[in-house]
Design goal:
It is built from 9 helices and 5 strands, in the order βαβαβαβαβααααα. It folds into 2 domains: 4-127, 3-Layer(aba) Sandwich (Rossmann fold), CATH 3.40.50; 139-196, Winged helix-like DNA-binding domain superfamily/Winged helix DNA-binding domain (Arc Repressor Mutant, subunit A). With 198 residues, the chain is α/β, with parallel strands linked by helices. The chain is 59% helix and 11% strand. It has a 5-stranded parallel sheet with strand order 2-1-3-4-5, with helices on both faces. α6 crosses α8 and α7 (157-164) crosses α8 (168-182). It starts with a strand and ends with a helix. β1, α1 (11-22) and β2 (28-31) form a beta-alpha-beta unit. This is DNA-binding response regulator. GO terms for molecular function: DNA binding. Keywords: DNA-binding, Phosphoprotein, Transcription, Transcription regulation.
Length: 198
Amino acid sequence: MTTLHIVDDDEAIRDALGWLFQSRNVPVIGWESAQAFLDAWTPETTGCLLLDIRMDGMSGLELFDRLLAQGSRMPVIFLTGHGDVPIAVGALKKGARDFVEKPFNDNELVDRVIGALAFDHDQRVREAGQAGLAARIASLTQRERQVMELVVAGRLNKVIAEELGISMRTVEVHRSHVFEKMRVKTAVELTRLLTGAG
């Protein structure tokens, strides 16, 4: 499981939340300020951010805006007081995942954070898979790519040979290279792989 980052300038709240999540086996790092988290953040930082909207110095909302500007897609859940609900709704429209009003139900908060951590993990796995697929496609020669497109379009080797003006044997060789490089055994697998990736 990836890590929950709790950003709250109130040490007692940070400690209480840390204990709550650790009791449910959620890895936690506490940050005493938005600036401290921002200074440590990199695009490779994984997990979920549990962020108090109101803090001394940089507010939770400012931190959220700065992270968005730097390309962060880390799921963010805001902790809000009753008066901050309109601000939290605005943050949702900008891409925050959720907000939870204080006082909150402990189990509900933990469940929402676990959902956000799972989302972050799945998103990263999907992106890694897409990057790997893009690299495999990039390894194909131009002719292999042409053959692959026609195979995915459902053309038979004979038809591909006619369309590309090459021999059937050459099509078979290219087709075999495509399957090997794309790590599939059949045209159906190849089609599924490429349509799954959009």
